[in-house]
Amino acid sequence: LSIAQIILSAGAFKAAARDNEDNVKEAVNKPLMLTVAALLIYYVLVLQIGFTITSIIYLFCQSLILMPAEDIKNKKKLIVPVLVSVIVPIAVNAIFWNLFSIKLPAGNLF
Question: What is the spatial distance between Cα 107 and Cα 47, in angstroms, rounded to a whole number?
C-alpha cells in the first residue's frame, strides 16, 4: 500500500513539473527539506559524536531553520535557542542516566 502511495505521489509530482515549473519550485518546502537533511545528518552522527553534542548541534540548527530571517539577525533573539539547545540535551542525558539507568550513546570520538 505504501509503495503504491509513493508511486502515485511521484506521478503527481512529475505531472506538476510538466504543467508549470514555477509551481513546482513553490511546492518544495525549504524548511521541510532542511529539516529532513538535518535529521539524516543527526542520525549518522549521533553514534559517532554522541547524543549530547549531536543533539546540541541539531537543536540549534533546527531552531535556525524554523526562525524567521529577521530574528536570526537579531542576536538577542538567539539567546533562547542557544540556551534551549544546550540545556535540553544535557537534561535529557541526566534524566536517562540518573532516573532510568540508561546510557545514551556517548560516541566513538570521546
Answer: 5
